[in-house]
Write a sequence for this structure.
């Protein structure tokens, strides 16, 4: 045990009061930082909106080294929508095959899908046998899409899809 | 021996603590992969993730426990889904652990108090969001894309983190009231008396 004044009741009360005061100051500081961080986040979002009014997100489809389609979010929303349940969660968006057909792709051997690679590997290569109607580009909360299918493992998903290369 | 800031011991960590922290790290990765609640709200993963970090810190109560969880979880994540981020995957897990550690010490280790646990977990979850933002900038992802939905995301990260802290506090209080904590991990008073 510690020696000296802290062994007395007054000493222990003093330590407790000191601790409480320290905690109150720490709580006020931490809450202040948290509120400031939330405020900065809202400001960043607002300034990003003001500085860029155009649609920043597109999915580019390429074949034989040429771009055969650039689809904005609204273009993707206007396509026939598919709904599947993958890993217990409902996913909705256009099927990959529908996106490819929209860009005039009817025959291919495999497809490479590239994402921003910010939340995952950002890449998957799929043969024609691996792609079915249930593989789709799901719309997420960030205003981008992710490639999902009921059979696809969570770690294989490609989020924030940017580019689809058809071969 | 007396320890400050709510700690019951120092380094090196006993084997039981190392095993517990490794288990917590494994659980965090497992919940990230296996538990996919039908909630489409950013930051919801913090409910389990930050809750688990706090339970780990609250049981072990030694300096650097959160950082250890962060390092091990980061290593596991880097091995399991490295992607383009490489080592940054690990940083995502490390920083919330460090933040939780620092605040645990700052608040004197009072995780049995719900409001303390809520503040610590909310801060750790916000740190995760901040790291994601800066990692994105480092990778050259347009700031406009990263900022999309950031306001809502920051608010929900705060809320889910706080809920995770509330849950962790409840778990720790339950472990303490049933005597499980004092049997497996001696309380500060008991260690001081020995």
């Amino acid at each position: 045990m510690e020696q000296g004044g802290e062994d007395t009741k007054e000493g222990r009360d003093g330590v407790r009061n000191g601790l409480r005061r320290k905690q109150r100051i720490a709580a006020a500081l931490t809450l202040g930082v948290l509120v400031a961080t939330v405020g900065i986040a809202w400001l960043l979002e607002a300034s990003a909106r003001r500085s860029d009014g155009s649609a920043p997100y597109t999915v580019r489809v390429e074949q034989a080294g040429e771009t055969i389609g650039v689809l904005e979010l609204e273009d993707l929303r206007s396509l026939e929508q598919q709904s599947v349940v993958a890993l217990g969660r409902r996913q909705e968006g256009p099927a990959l095959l529908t996106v490819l057909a929209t860009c005039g792709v009817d025959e291919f051997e495999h497809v490479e899908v590239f994402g921003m690679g910010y939340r995952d590997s950002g890449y998957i290569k799929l043969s024609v046998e691996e792609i079915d109607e249930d593989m789709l580009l799901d719309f997420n909360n960030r205003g981008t899409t992710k490639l999902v299918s009921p059979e696809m493992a969570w770690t294989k998903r490609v989020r924030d899809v940017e580019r689809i290369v058809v071969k | 021996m007396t320890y400050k800031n709510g700690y019951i011991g120092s380094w090196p960590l006993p084997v039981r603590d190392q095993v517990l922290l490794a288990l917590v790290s494994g659980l965090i990765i497992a919940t990230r992969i296996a538990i996919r609640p039908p909630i489409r709200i950013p930051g919801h993963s913090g409910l389990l993730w930050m809750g688990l970090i706090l339970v780990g810190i609250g049981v072990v109560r030694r300096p650097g426990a959160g950082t250890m969880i962060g390092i091990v979880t980061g290593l596991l994540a880097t091995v399991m889904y490295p992607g383009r981020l490489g080592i940054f995957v690990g940083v995502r897990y490390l920083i919330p652990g460090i933040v939780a550690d620092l605040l645990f010490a700052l608040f004197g280790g009072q995780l049995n108090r719900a409001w303390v646990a809520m503040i610590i977990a909310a801060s750790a979850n916000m740190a995760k969001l901040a790291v994601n933002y800066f990692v994105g900038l480092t990778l050259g992802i347009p700031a406009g894309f990263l900022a999309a939905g950031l306001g809502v995301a920051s608010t929900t990260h705060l809320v889910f983190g706080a809920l995770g802290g509330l849950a962790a506090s409840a778990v720790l209080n339950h472990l303490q009231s049933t005597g499980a904590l004092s049997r497996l991990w001696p309380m500060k008073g008991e260690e001081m008396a020995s």
Observations:
- Chain B is about 70% helix and 0% strand.
- The two ends of chain B are 8 Å apart (CA to CA).
